[in-house]
Amino acid sequence: MSQYTSAAKKQMEKSIDSLVYNFTRVRTGRANAHVLDGIKVDYYGQPTPITQLAGVKVPEASMLVIEPWDKGILRDIEKAIELSDLGITPSNDGASIRLPFPRPTEERRKELVKECGRYAEDAKVGIRNARRDANNKAEKDEELSEDEVSREKKAIQKLTDDYVAKVDELLKNKTAEVMEI
Fold first, then answer.
1. pTM of the shown model
2. What average pLDDT does range 94-104 have in this prediction?
3. Boundaries of each Ribosome recycling factor domain copy (predicted)?
4. Which residue ranges form the domains of the chain, and what is each CATH number?
5. If residue 157 lies in a helix (H) or strand (E), which one and from where to where?
6. Is the pLDDT of residue 143 over 80?
């Protein structure tokens, strides 16, 4: 693998990683602890992720339970979840917080599929940008002959096709998960 294809591969890998991260944040009817990743709680003056302050359990498919190690922060965690854009109302029982994940309606599931499609398209754009950058670098390399540049472009295009296929497969799987009742 040449320097151009390996550089393109690194960039394309980042696009896939970003897509996978974005897909974990899409809220389906299943409980997923990753929805809490972006929520920070003010803990002794420091914004701290919930996962560093509490144990997060999934006792059933549609329920998350957050059990803070310091019970005094329970109310702060609840407030941070309420202020987030999660759209779930937390239930505080004095020892833990329960987050029920209601099943999305048919209309909401279709919106979620569209959102996933946008994430997938963003990933494809990132992959195409990596291809363009690698092709430009190969063309500007004066040490490469025209045939070598052509071979590099073919290798980069093959890599691009493989990564676009990965994005399509990830989107297909996420769509099936979202549309599952």
1. 0.74
2. 85
3. 22-179
4. 3-25+105-179 (1.10.132.20), 33-100 (3.30.1360.40)
5. helix 146-179
6. yes
